[in-house]
Amino acid sequence: MSTPTATYRIQFRNGMTFERAMARIPYLKRLGISHLYASPIFTATRGSTHGYDVTDANEIDPALGGRDAFMRMAAALKGAGMGLILDIVPNHMAASLENPWWRDVIAQGQNSRYARHFDIDWSRPLTLPFLGDDFATVVEKGELSVQADPQTGHPVFVYFDNVYPLVAESWQGRETEVLALRDSRDLIALHELQPWRLTCWRTAASDLSYRRFFEITGLVGVRVEDEAVFDDSHRLILELVNSGVVDGLRVDHVDGLADPLGYLRRLRQKTGPECYITVEKILGKGEQLPADWPVSGTTGYEFIAALSDVLVDDEQLDDLRKAWHQVTGKAVDMHAELRAAKRLMVDRNFAGEFNTLVRLAVEIGHAEIPVPQAKAVRQALRELLIAFPVYRTYGTAQGLTPADAERLAKVVAWVRESEHAPEPDALDFITRILHGDVAKSMLQQAAHFRTRFQQLTGPLMAKAVEDTLFFRQNMDLALNEVGAEPLPRTFSLQRFHREMQTRLEQQPNALSATSTHDTKRGEDARARLYTLTEAPQQWADCVTRWRHLNREKVVLLDDGPAPRPAVAWMIYQALAGVWPATLQADDAQGLQALESRFIEFLEKALREAKQRTDWIETNDAYENAVLDYARHLLSPENQAFLQDFTAALQPFIRAGLVNSLTQTLIKLAAPGVPDIYQGSEALNFSLVDPDNRLEPDYEELERLLSDEEQADPHSQESWNSGQLKQFFIARLLQLRQQKPRLFQRGDYLPLTTSGPQADNIIAFARQDNDAALIVLAPRLLFGALEGSLAGAVVSLPAGLANRRWRDILSGEEFALSDSVHLRSIGGYTFAALVSA
Length: 836
Fold this sequence. Notes:
Elements: E1 7-10, H1 18-22, H2 25-31, E2 35-38, E3 42-44, E4 54-60, H3 66-79, E5 83-88, E6 92-94, H4 100-108, E7 126-131, H5 135-140, E8 144-148, E9 155-159, E10 162-165, H6 175-179, H7 184-192, E11 196-200, E12 212-213, E13 216-221, H8 227-242, E14 248-251, H9 260-271, E15 276-279, E16 297-298, H10 301-311, H11 314-328, H12 334-349, H13 351-365, H14 374-387, H15 402-417, H16 424-435, H17 443-472, H18 493-506, E17 511-512, H19 523-530, H20 536-549, E18 555-557, E19 560-562, H21 565-578, H22 588-609, H23 620-633, H24 639-669, E20 673-677, H25 698-706, H26 716-721, H27 723-738, H28 740-745, E21 747-750, E22 753-754, E23 761-768, E24 771-778, E25 793-795, E26 803-807, E27 813-816, E28 819-821, E29 831-835
Parallel strand pairs: 1-2, 1-20, 2-5, 5-14, 7-11, 14-15, 15-16, 17-20
Antiparallel strand pairs: 3-4, 6-13, 8-9, 9-10, 12-13, 18-19, 21-23, 22-25, 23-24, 24-29, 25-28, 26-27, 26-29
Helix pairs in contact: 10-18, 10-24, 11-20, 12-13, 12-14, 12-17, 13-14, 13-17, 14-16, 15-16, 17-22, 19-21, 19-24, 22-23, 24-27
């Protein structure tokens, strides 16, 4: 298998084309990148900003330059000795009339060749929830009419810019008559003749006849478990891999598939053993990737979570939590908050999917004597879904795997003893369905139930935790990241070392991410916000002072103040994370640029929290009050606050830059393949999407790299520009290319530290026979930024002792006996010592 030494993620679209990416190849080569890692490049809806709304999986998007430009880019990469990894989207396509397969289904219903390509429940008409109101009301308003299709001349329903083809049976032989229909009753009758129903978008959560991606009605599930559908949707992908144009694939949302293992085995069989394959998969607490998946590993969210063990001050975390509780006015019960978020998802956001499962269970129950009551079945199913601790199990038509059966047994036992325990008989009944322990006549229905259950637990977890709880509970935003544990836990260096040893054993060639197109904030914003755990009282005092300075901008609404203190805490923290390192209080232009990004983030944060406003029922008065509060914070006229804020932020900025280099050095040397998200080789203070998908300033990045000799650790400008971070990356990536076996297979050895500052350093080694690397980096230095780590001693095991070493960061060479005294390295407390 061709394993990358380092990947570089580029977000195509929004101006980034194949030609423009090709111009960056020399820069990526100098940086030390082995593989360009491309966001989806197949044809998507017009104006798509991300490419996950694919309309043609067998065409390279002309908006990006089309196939010719793509092939030129691929050839340029090969010419530079680099590879190419594609992000593919097997789970869903765009439910858009631009999608020829979807349009054909609308035009022909179940007679369409593609009727079984999409995950549609054909026991009833296909629901198309894209109207602003119900069908009859839309017709009465005159917003919908019958017209001739500009392409075919045949009758179609036209709703603003959307054209819905009518099935031929409903108009053939009377085409002129149908085109003349204007009466509401006639239009309603014509609508009833279609194999689909146009409905209001608000009904999608409760009444949808097709599987969607999470809550996005415009993305319809694809049945890639069917071999014919797999072949149709992977024709171009396989051609590019098997011809050697593409070296690797990143599988988006693998947990959404009906049978992830079956899909991955087919993909591996079709691509061959050399293709590098990773999967987007969130691993829960204590969870590992299934051992039988034929992939190199995940895309690395669990690596982000592991880094918090290095950079969170666990000893002071309780003080930050207490300060947060004082602001919220109560001690927060995170177990209860998680339950509330998951219940909201079950009862509202995914009500349709939940009701489908209840209906399936009741149907299966008809073969049982006695039949459990539908109400009891509903309660038992709800509690099981709420209690599920990981994204999903991986049962197939044959039943659950032994590991999944064991996990299910633990969850059921917990539910049975909980304060919300459902009726035991109903819980047993649901459990038996999941095991396939039902009447023989119901085995197929039980398998279908199991699949749908497994496809629902993931979206429930993701939307409840990442997109609800993490926007409600804002003690430290750095901990509210994709893949993070939502419940309180202990953070420790020992845990991190164990995680890395497990990572080496389980998935040594997985991607190691720190920023992605889906992370809640950029890696350097997260690095800065970790420092709040080192100075909790200082931070709390700052927020109290800032709230007082801006108290006149708080608006009292009928449902309470806007913003409430807890939301204000979040606003100040998010602003602290995104604040450019060199932005000054009197920089009106810089403040305006920041405001436009910050307001967009804040609106999303308020709606995702789903407390006083949300995406379904927006509360304009509340939103406007909070957004105006944030605008006031960034107004050049608000100098009293801005001067205080910038001054108070300085120690957090400095400590955050130290954290940034520490997490970067760890990522480059720890088990896994380091993935550099576009622009993150310098500083990335981005907010949640779409802010994190903006194109970086490549001209400035190239200038910094070409001037890497100026990457002086004693120069504040080198820190603030990100040049020092970029320098670290370039040096380590060059070493990874020189010694790939050391990083792919070398042992991970935690090193023992002692002395007065032993807790302020992370030390580990990678070793493969004679090849070795020692990594030393500072941690938890908020209160000692001006001092060095002199006095800390790192002990070396026999295999590393009595050798000569070269620090690839400083260029210094020296001999070490059985320990490293940090004073011997000088004031530069970062070191990457390679055996000379």
